[in-house]
From TrEMBL:
Keyword Transport: yes
GO cellular component, one term: endoplasmic reticulum membrane
Region described as Disordered: spans on this chain: 168-198
Protein name, per record: Volume-regulated anion channel subunit LRRC8E
Length: 793
C-alpha cells in the first residue's frame, strides 16, 4: 500500500507562505488532496486485488462470429434475457496456471487503457495540479523574493513600532484614552467595516492598550528602536528590488493558465472514456493450442468501484476548474500590478504612504485576500512620516536634556550656545533647555521646528549650516521680533528658507551658498525690505554684482561682507547707496583695483580687500574722502609697492599689508601719525625707512617673514609699542635700544640669526616669558636676574 505521506513533499511549503494563499488556492489544495486520495485508493486496490477474472466461452459454432459475453449479464443485475444458455457447472478442463495465463493476457489485450490505468492517471494529474499550485514557491527566481517578503512582513506585523504608530494615530483626536476606550477609538476612526474585519481590528488593538495608556509605557527601548530602524531600511531596499520586475505576477498567471488548460483536457477525455469502464469484458485471443479455447468472457472486478470513483473525480475536477477560472477572472478584471494605500492613508492619517507597483503590488493584493490587516501594518514602514517619528523617538532617547546641557558653552559673542552636528534629526529635548541663547545646527537634514521652539524664550541666535529647516507660521511670529542673528549655509542660495527674510527684528544676516549658473550674473536675492533693523549682512557666493536688494537696507546697514570665493565681482555701483555703511569686506572678489564706488562711502570706517588680485593701489589717495576710515586691510594680494600718497591718510589707525610682494616701504608712511597697527609681515622687505620712528602712536608692528638684516634705531622711538613681531628674518643682532620699549608685552624673535639677546630686555617691564617668542638657547643666555624678572607673575 502506498502511504499518503509519500506525496507530502509535493505540497509542502513553509507555514508562513500561507499568507500568500488566497481562499481559492486553499480550496484547490483541499480538492487536490481529495483527488489524490481517490487515486491512491484506486492504485491500492489495483495492486492488492485481482484485476480481472476470465472464463472460456461455450458458444455454438454458428455464434462464434459474435463477441463473447455480448449477451451475458450477471444474474440479479437485470432480468434474464431470452435464449440465455446455462453454462454453470460446465467443466473447462483448465488448471490454475492456464486461468492465470488467460487473466493476464486478457487484461493486457482486451481491457481498455482508461479502465486499466484510471487510478494512475488520477495520481499523475493530481500531482501536476499540486506542482502548478506550488511551483512559484519553489522556483529560485520567485521563492527568494517570497521568502524575503514574508520575513519582512512578519517582522513588520510584530514590531512594537507598528503598534506604537497605529495607536498614536488612533489617539490623535482623543488625549489620554483609557484602556477600555482604545478599541472604540480605532473602530470609530476606521468608519463602518465588515464584521470579520472588525473582529480582526479588535485583535490588533488589544495589545496596544498597554502601549497607549501612560506615556512612560509608550516609549520603546533602545533595542526595539534599532530593530524598527533596520526594518525601515530593509523595506526600502526590498521595495526598490521587487518593483523592478513582475516575475511573480507572470509566474502566477502562467501556472494558473496551465491549470485551466489541464482542467479542460482532463474533463474532456474523462467524459469521453469513462463509459469504457465496463463490468463484463469480452476477450478473443488465439490460445486454442494452449488452452483449447479462443474466446473468453472476463469480469473486471474493479469496474463498479472505478466508475463511481471516476464520477467523483470528475466532480472534483469540475470544482477545481471553477476555482481556476475564478482565479483568471481575479487576475484580469482589475490591474494587480498597481496597489493603492488610499484607504490606509485615510484611516491612519499617514498621507505620504506611497502606492506600489509590479510584484510588490501583486503580493499585497494576495495578502489582502488573506487578511487586509497585514497591509495596514506593513504600510507603516513605507511612510516617511512614520520613519521620521521613529528617528525622533530614538533621538529623544539618545539625547536627554542632561546630555544636551553638557554641550552648552559660550560662543564668541558670549551667548550660551548649543551646537549639534550630523544628527539624523533635531531632538525634541532641545526645546526643554529654555536657557539656550544660540542654537547651531550643522548637517541635519529636513528640520521642521515643532511648537516646542516657543519654549526657547532666550533664543537670539540661530545657525543653519547645511540644515534645511521649515518653520510654521505661528513660530515665525514667535521669532520675528526675538531673533537677532541668523546664519544659513546651503549649496545654493535659492534653498534659503523664505521665512528668514521675514524676521523683522533681525540685526545680522549671514548667507553662504552659490547662485545657480544661470542666476549668477543677475545675482538676485530675496527682498530685504522686512528687515527693518538689519545692521550686518554677510553674503558668501559667486555673484557677479552686488545684489540689488542690498539697497533695501541701505538706510541702516552698517556692515556688508561679500565673499566671492574667487569669482570676479564686476558691478559695484550699488555700494554708493549704502550711505550708513561703516564696514565693508570684499574678499576673494577678483578685484584688480580698488573699486571707485568705495570712495563714496562717507561713513566708512573699515575696508577689507583681502585675497584679491590687487597689484597697484594708486587709488589710495582717494581714501582722503573717507574721512572716518580708520582700518584698511589690503592683505593677501599682489601689491608690489605702496604709493607716497599714503601720507594723506592721517586718520588711519590700522594698515594691513601682509602677504603681498613689497620690497620697500615709502618714507611718507611715517606721516600717518594716527597709525596704531602696521602689519607688513610675509613680504620681501630688506630694510625699513627710519621715518617709521615718527609713528608715535604705533602699538603693534608686524615684520615677521621678511628678509630684514637690520632694524633702524628709529624704530625704537615708538615708545608705545606693545607687540613687535620680528620672527623669521635675517637679523644678526637686536639693538639694546629695545629696552626703552617699556610697554612691550610681546616680542617675537624666532627664526633669525641672533647669537645673543641684549640684557636690556630686562627694562621692558611688561615683557614676560610667555610673551617672548625666542629659541630656548638664546633665552638661557640672558642674565639670571633678567630671566627671574620675566618669570615673575
Amino acid at each position: 500500500m502506498i502511504p499518503v505521506a509519500e506525496f507530502k513533499q509535493f505540497t509542502e511549503q513553509q507555514p508562513a507562505f500561507k499568507v500568500l494563499k488566497p481562499w481559492w488556492d486553499v480550496l484547490a489544495e483541499y480538492l487536490t488532496v481529495a483527488m489524490l486520495m481517490i487515486g491512491v485508493f484506486g492504485c491500492t486496490l489495483q495492486v492488492t486485488q485481482d484485476k480481472i477474472i476470465c472464463l472460456p466461452s461455450h458458444e455454438l459454432r454458428e455464434n462464434l462470429s459474435e463477441a463473447p459475453c455480448q449477451q451475458l449479464r450477471p444474474r440479479g443485475v437485470s432480468e434474464q434475457m431470452g435464449g440465455l444458455r446455462e453454462v454453470s457447472g460446465l467443466k473447462n478442463n483448465l488448471d490454475l496456471q492456464q486461468y492465470s495465463f488467460i487473466n493476464q493476457l486478457c487484461y493486457e489485450t482486451a481491457l481498455h487503457w482508461y479502465a486499466k490505468y484510471f487510478p494512475y492517471l488520477v495520481v499523475i494529474h493530481t500531482l501536476i495540479f499540486m506542482v502548478c499550485t506550488s511551483f512559484w514557491f519553489k522556483f529560485p527566481g520567485t521563492s527568494s523574493k517570497i521568502e524575503h517578503f514574508i520575513s519582512i512582513l512578519g517582522k513588520c506585523f510584530d514590531s512594537p513600532w507598528t503598534t506604537r504608530a497605529l495607536s498614536e494615530v488612533s489617539g490623535e483626536n482623543q488625549k489620554g484614552p483609557t484602556a477600555g476606550r482604545v478599541t472604540a477609538t480605532v473602530e470609530a476612526s476606521a468608519g463602518p467595516r465588515k464584521a470579520d474585519e472588525g473582529e480582526k481590528e479588535k485583535v490588533l488593538v488589544e495589545p496596544e492598550k498597554v502601549v497607549t495608556e501612560p506615556p512612560a509605557v509608550t516609549l520603546l527601548d533602545k533595542k526595539e528602536g534599532e530593530q524598527a530602524k533596520a526594518l525601515f531600511e530593509k523595506v526600502k531596499k526590498f521595495r526598490v528590488h521587487v518593483e523592478e520586475g513582475d516575475i511573480l505576477y507572470t509566474m502566477y498567471i502562467r501556472q494558473t493558465v496551465l491549470k485551466v488548460c489541464k482542467f479542460f483536457a482532463i474533463l474532456v477525455y474523462n467524459l469521453v472514456y469513462v463509459e469504457k469502464i465496463s463490468f463484463l469484458v469480452p476477450c478473443r485471443v488465439e490460445t486454442s493450442e494452449v488452452t483449447g479455447y479462443a474466446s473468453f468472457c472476463c469480469n473486471h472486478t474493479k469496474a463498479h468501484l472505478f466508475s463511481k470513483l471516476a464520477f467523483c473525480y470528475i466532480s472534483f475536477v469540475c470544482v477545481y476548474g471553477i476555482t481556476c477560472l475564478y482565479t483568471l477572472y481575479w487576475l484580469f478584471h482589475r490591474p494587480l500590478k498597481e496597489y493603492s494605500f488610499r484607504s490606509v492613508r485615510e484611516e491612519t492619517g499617514m498621507g505620504d504612504i506611497p502606492d506600489v507597483k509590479n510584484d510588490f503590488a501583486f503580493m499585497l493584493h494576495l495578502i489582502d485576500q488573506y487578511d487586509s490587516l497585514y497591509s495596514k501594518r506593513f504600510a507603516v514602514f513605507l511612510s516617511e512620516v512614520s520613519e521620521s517619528r521613529l528617528k525622533q523617538l530614538n533621538l529623544n532617547h539618545e539625547w536627554t536634556p542632561e546630555k544636551l546641557r553638557q554641550k552648552l558653552q559660550r560662543n564668541a559673542r558670549g551667548r550660551l550656545e548649543l551646537a549639534l552636528c550630523m544628527l539624523p534629526g533635531l531632538p525634541d529635548t532641545v526645546f526643554e533647555l529654555s536657557e539656550v541663547e544660540a542654537l547651531r545646527l550643522e548637517a541635519i537634514c529636513d528640520i521642521t521646528f515643532p511648537p516646542g521652539l516657543s519654549q526657547l524664550v532666550h533664543l537670539q541666535e540661530l545657525s543653519l549650516l547645511h540644515s534645511p529647516a521649515r518653520l510654521p507660521f505661528s513660530l515665525q511670529v514667535f521669532l520675528r521680533d526675538r531673533l537677532k542673528v541668523i546664519r544659513v549655509k546651503c549649496e545654493e542660495l535659492r534653498e534659503v528658507p523664505l521665512w528668514v527674510f521675514g524676521l523683522r527684528g533681525l540685526e545680522e544676516l549671514h548667507l553662504e551658498g552659490l547662485f545657480a549658473p544661470e542666476l549668477a550674473r543677475a545675482a538676485t536675492l530675496e527682498s530685504l525690505r522686512e528687515l527693518k533693523q538689519l545692521k550686518v549682512l554677510s553674503l558668501r557666493s559667486n555673484a557677479s554684482k552686488v545684489p540689488a536688494s542690498v539697497t533695501d537696507v541701505a538706510g541702516h546697514l552698517q556692515r556688508l561682507s561679500l565673499h566671492n570665493d574667487g569669482a570676479r565681482l564686476l558691478a559695484l555701483n550699488s555700494l554708493k547707496k549704502l550711505a550708513a555703511l561703516r564696514e565693508l569686506e570684499l574678499v576673494a572678489c577678483g578685484l584688480e583695483r580698488i573699486p571707485h564706488a568705495v570712495f563714496s562711502l562717507g561713513a566708512l570706517q573699515e575696508l577689507d580687500l583681502k585675497d584679491n588680485h590687487l597689484r597697484s593701489i594708486e587709488e589710495i589717495l582717494s581714501f582722503q574722502h573717507c574721512r572716518k576710515l580708520v582700518t584698511l586691510k589690503l592683505w593677501h594680494n599682489q601689491i608690489t609697492y605702496v604709493p607716497e600718497h599714503v601720507r594723506k591718510l592721517r586718520g588711519l589707525e590700522q594698515l594691513h599689508l601682509s602677504h603681498n610682494k613689497l620690497e620697500t616701504l615709502p618714507t611718507q608712511l611715517g606721516l600717518c601719525s594716527g597709525l596704531r597697527l602696521l602689519d607688513v609681515s610675509h613680504n620681501g622687505l630688506r630694510s625699513l625707512p627710519p621715518e617709521l620712528g615718527l609713528l608715535q602712536s604705533l602699538q603693534h608692528l608686524a615684520l615677521s617673514f621678511n628678509a630684514l638684516e637690520t632694524l633702524p634705531e628709529e624704530v625704537f622711538f615708538c615708545r608705545k609699542l606693545r607687540t613687535l613681531l620680528l620672527g623669521y628674518n635675517h637679523l644678526s643682532q637686536l639693538s639694546p635700544q629695545v629696552g626703552v620699549l617699556r610697554a612691550l608685552s610681546r616680542l617675537e624673535l624666532k627664526g633669525n640669526r641672533l647669537e645673543a639677546l641684549p640684557e636690556e630686555l630686562g627694562n621692558c617691564v611688561g615683557l614676560k616669558r610667555a610673551g617672548l617668542l625666542v629659541e630656548d638657547t638664546l633665552y638661557e643666555g640672558l642674565p639670571a636676574e633678567v630671566r627671574e624678572k620675566m618669570e615673575e607673575e
